[in-house]
Please model this.
Amino acid sequence: MRKKLFSILIVFAICFSTYHFSRAQEHVKVPIILYHNITTDERDLSDKPLLNITPENFRVHMQTLKNEGWNTISFQDYYNHVTHNTALPNKPIIITFDDGYLSNYIYAFPVLKELGMKATIFTVAGRVGEGVSLEVTYPHFTWEQAKDMENSGVISIESHSNMHYNMSNSSDIDRLQVELRRSKFLIEKHLNKECAVFAFPFGGKTDLARELGKQAGYKMLCLVGDVGSNSAGEDLDRLKRITIRGYESPEQLINTITKNLI
Model:
């Protein structure tokens, strides 16, 4: 009888701790931070701090996150957490880049690999491999370089549209379909992977664009702005991201993230 009672108590304790662990995981806040280009030109940084960061400051940012106990996760990790209640590490964070600039390959990729951190690059698929032109401010990495990053397990390549079309107020269904579907097709074709995440150019989106994105087969859709963090129970088609300014010090970086843990 005692043995049976003891077994029942053990089962109860396991169920109780599992329940509380599950409940705690529901409220885990996951910030998604955003970078764009990495440049050695200080003028780019002073003129466009929302788009640029120096290689030195990017390394400092990544080392700061690591020192402060933040653990980088992938969008697939977050998806599994939301849909299957899988556990996340303490202080999870997702690092993203928009546009697919060559500087991401030259500067960010080696730093992330060295520090054992993950990131996602949202690539303008129709611009892959392009150099500077009237339409292109900074050169973009090639498909071979994208494949190198994707195969490393350090960086995941996802979609930022086909030609960086602003979807904020567009009702042109045909153009929206092309931007959503062709970019997905190109990434899957060249990298032999599922392209499951889309980041709206300029952060803009409409109910129409979001619905077309889901119909195109994206599992997650991302916005942009200093708008908070993400947690289970919230919609996967409007994930919030925090833009990081290139001039931010380590203290400012951590403050930017923590103030958005809402």
Q: What stands out?
A: The chain has one domain: 29-259.
